[in-house]
Amino acid sequence: MMSALMRLGVNIDHVATIRNARWTAAAGGDHPDPVAAALLAVTAGADGITAHLREDRRHIRDEDISRLMAELTVPLNLEMAATDEMLAIALHHRPHAVCLVPEKREERTTEGGLDAAGQAAALVPIIAQLYDAGIRVSLFIEPDLRQLDAAVRLKAPVVEFHTGRYAHLSGAARAEELKRIADSAALATKNGIEPHAGHGLTYDNVAPIAAIPQLAELNIGHFLIGEAIFTGLADSVREMKARMAAAR
To answer: Residue 1's pLDDT is what?
Structure first.
């Protein structure tokens, strides 16, 4: 028996990426507005909004987070690196959720999951402070037993499995990676962790992921913003939700 319909979190980072192409400290650059995009996505059915505040502020900026907190009527999932600077920002704003992700300045986009196993000692105090502030903590990890074991030890209530590898494979290799994600989602649930997934998902590849019954939420951004160029953001969000629902 399939589980209930899963949630869709819409990542608005790349609306800000386009805006920032014309932004300088001295002039202009307020269009397109990522907060307006977030509100439009919500009216189209987004169950939450995801925003990644990077160290170099390459897309979402601090004032965007302030406005999102003030204007959103759905949960905000703040993606961030596990650093003192980002921790302070999260504790100031207190979003519904924080997803801890790896971050390398030279990468164009997130290239893989957090090494929760290797960085467990550093993650313990950060997770504890977020938890004490009433913020739901998620770890963005590979669908890997070692990383999932670390999430269990760290008492993370949520993990988000990186689907980038699945998205870029085909044939038998993709089927094997899909099984790895499904097995990891089942094991997470067995250990009391709510599993989510995201990265690289499109209309064409989302159905097998959405069909994994234990997954509660998908976070999708780049494809939806790109598709919005052709169809509009509201339509791209509605179409993705329809495909997710059909897979269930």
So the answer is: 39
Separation in Å, CA 15 to CA 6, 31, 60, 67, 200: 24, 9, 9, 15, 16
Domains defined along the chain, listed by start: 7-247 (3.20.20.70)
Residue 191: predicted pLDDT:
98
Q: Give the global pTM.
A: 0.93
The active-site residue out of 79, 194, 217, 227 is 79
Report residue 95 as tokens. Answer: 């979003």
- Is the pLDDT at 3 greater than 70, yes or no? no
In whole angstroms, give the CA distance from residue 63 to residue 92. 13
Task: Catalogue the E-assigned strands of 81-226.
Answer: 97-100, 136-141, 158-162, 194-198, 217-220
- 79 an active-site residue? yes
CB atoms within 10 A of CB 127: 23
Tokens representing 238 are 């509605």
Active-site residue, from 52, 93, 162, 196: 52
Provide the total of helices (H) and of strands (E) in the chain, helices listed first: 11, 8
Query: Rounded to an integer, what distance in angstroms lies between the CA atom of residue 123 and that of residue 129?
Result: 10
Which H or E run includes 66?
helix 62-71
Answer yes or no: 52 catalytic. Answer: yes
| Per-residue pLDDT, 2 | 45
Lowest mean pLDDT among 26-35, 69-78, 94-103, 217-226: 26-35
From 14, 93, 196, 199, the catalytic residue? 199
